[in-house]
Design a protein that fits this description.
Layout (H helix, E strand, L loop, with lengths): L6 E4 L8 E4 L32 E2 L12 E2 L5 E5 L4 E8 L2 E8 L10 E2 L8 E2 L2 E2 L4 E2 L5 E5 L4 E8 L2 E8 L20 E6 L5 E5 L4 E5 L9 E2 L3 E3 L2 E7 L5 E7 L6 E7 L4 E6 L9 E6 L1
Antiparallel strand pairs: 1-2, 3-7, 4-5, 5-6, 6-7, 8-14, 9-10, 11-12, 12-13, 13-14, 15-16, 16-17, 18-20, 19-20, 20-23, 21-22, 21-24
């Protein structure tokens, strides 16, 4: 671009005012120059026509699809806000075949189940949370914003089994915990890493949450014991929401449960009153 073309003088009806318009190339504004252009094509659905019909290419119908995940075979998984369903879009030759794998169009809910017996509620007020993820085994994870839960859709032969991984339907909150003890408030998106850990974004809580498979949850750790006012006390450090039995023994072979506690996160302190008539007493914490 020639220097004398960078600025253009504008003549107007404002007396005593001289206006200049700068005409800059995209690079000067930090815009992409599209050195590697993408060509977009419509592979399924029909512009301006909503619905819930399964089918191939343009014969399929969608109603407010939002978010998409791709598995290692190139299959697409997408939730639909208005239909409250999970759809797959699979390449077959040069065509794309759309199938509803879970949920029933027009029937929101929170029920776990197989295929159309499952229910979703992807609408949370004005917020729509449906950003899905798929792991290497083909399991699909979706944030169910209207239910404030995290759902898992597992392939089982030709069926798809829907379960609730975390949260409680209809109960919003921010509590960390395991399974239904955890609380969410309008979860919007989810990602899964190679270790199976989930990462969830929450609109209303303004937080990022991490969910770990039970097999990778670190066990609680006992802290050094102490004696205070005749009470024997010790601390337990572990993830919030873990249920821990406090057990005692006089011979290290037979154990008796003294109580069950739910960890609050950080270090939790517990005190017991030893019985001198029993002689030596041992205590341990056992995850339920």
């Amino acid at each position: 671009m020639k220097p004398n073309n960078l600025f253009r003088r504008l003549a107007g009806n404002l007396p005593g005012v001289l206006l200049w318009l700068a005409v800059l190339p995209p690079a000067a504004l930090g815009q992409a120059n599209y050195a590697t252009p993408y060509t977009f094509t419509t592979i399924a659905g029909k512009v301006g026509t909503s619905g819930s019909t399964d089918g191939t290419n343009s014969t399929a119908r969608f109603n407010a699809p939002i978010g998409v995940a791709v598995d290692t075979n190139g299959n697409l998984y997408l939730p639909e806000v208005t239909n409250n369903t999970i759809r797959t879009v699979k390449p077959v030759g040069t065509s794309w075949v759309v199938t509803t794998v879970a949920g029933l169009a027009g029937h929101p809910g929170s029920a776990d189940g197989t295929n159309s017996a499952a229910r979703f509620n992807f609408t949370s007020g004005l917020y729509y949370g449906c950003g899905p993820a798929v792991d290497s085994a083909g399991n699909v994870y979706v944030p169910d914003a209207g239910n404030n839960t995290i759902r898992k859709i597992t392939p089982d032969g030709t069926n798809w089994v829907v379960t609730t991984l975390a949260g409680q339907a209809g109960v919003a909150g921010s509590a960390d915990g395991t399974g239904s003890a955890a609380r969410f408030d309008s979860p919007q998106g989810v990602a899964v890493d190679s270790a199976g850990n989930l990462y969830v974004t929450e609109y209303n809580n303004c937080t990022i949450r991490k969910g770990m498979p039970a097999s990778s949850v670190p066990p609680p750790m006992l802290q050094p014991p102490s004696l205070s006012a005749g009470l024997f006390g010790f601390g337990i450090t572990g993830l919030p929401g873990l249920a821990v039995n406090i057990e005692s023994s006089t011979n290290l072979s037979s154990w008796v449960v003294n109580g069950t506690y739910i960890l609050n996160g950080g270090t939790n302190y517990y005190f017991v009153s030893p019985n001198p008539s029993l002689g030596a007493q041992f205590y341990r914490a056992h995850v339920r």
